[in-house]
Amino acid sequence: MKKKNTTLMILVVLLVVLCAGYVGIVKYKETQDQKQQEASEAEEESNKIVLNQMDEIVALSFNTTDGQLSFHAHDDVWHYDGDEAFPLNTSKINLILNNLNPLEATRKLEEKEDLSNYGLTEPSKTVTITDAAGNQKVLNIGSMNEYSGDYYASIAGDDNVYTIGTALVNSLDVTLNDLLQLDTIPYLTESDITQIEYKTATESVVYKKEERVKETEETQQETDSSEVESTSTSEETTSEPEMETVWTETRNGTTVDLSDSSKITDAISSISQLSINSCEAYNVSPEQFASYGLDEANSKDIIITYNDATSETQEQKTFTLHIGNLSPQETSYYCIRVDESTQVDRIAAFSIDSIISDLQQVGEPAEETESTSESASTQSESSDAVTESVAEN
Known about the structure:
This protein is an alpha+beta fold and about 400 residues long. It is built from seven helices and 19 strands. Among the domains are: about 50-180, Sandwich (Immunoglobulin-like); about 195-215 and about 240-360, no CATH class. A hairpin with a 2-residue loop joins strand 13 (about 245-250) and strand 14.
């Protein structure tokens, strides 16, 4: 018995030793892997070719098809040097800055040929950046390497030629108009919109969506009867009433239910697809809106009330699209104004015409088709024949 206990103890000790050894091996491997990764990262870091690394860039300039574009930062806000009032899309400027700072080369050419072979005697892009301390750096970008897809580049004051990736070059491929911040139209669906008003200088028509209890024969009888009393007890349960969506039209102070809301649905569908194409003018004064047909006397307004799906409380908001004349520069576009913006933007004319056409047709009776006309004529003749037969009898 004693011998068995001794053997068992020896086995237990061996198991403990083996487990400890296994744990030790695992820990050692993890340590070695970590050291190897750190060494690899250190080697990769040492092999990086950094062409630019600044603490804070406060000025940026580069050439485009529009000529030289220059920008500066004031109180962390970027402005266009050519016009302080220009509505600059800062996200596009930040994209350029992120690609510039830091800027790493994919490689340095060990054997340099004539700069003309790299498109660097007349660079396609020249970028100048300045930091808060006044330090300036000039980057020249030449032609593309047809094999790697990278671009040749050089830094003023550095005789070397490098290659860089495409990200910076792509972000610099812009015009001044590309850098303009356009107004936005909220994306709205039929479930979001609760009211649409079409307003001109001479009329105003309001289409409003209401949720009502659906009327059935039973509920109608209960409504018409004044003697029906509730006999339900607290133990009885009633089913949820069936609801329906009803659109109403208010014109000249008179409100009626719409029997057919298909045109409202069509208009909402067109509204949900609206997008601003470009800018006609910015920083427009109140007196100048008349020249675009956007003054109170000439503007056609579509005023939309909707539940904001992006807010937790489904906050109700109003959005106004002011529609003016056709753009004299782009005649297939209308000049429009969003809410009280000081910009005049452009939207494709066919989109606006479709919405207005649908709104103007809401509530109109369906056009009489040829088959409907023939059917009505036949029914009329049949009715006349029956009347004559009755009279003869």
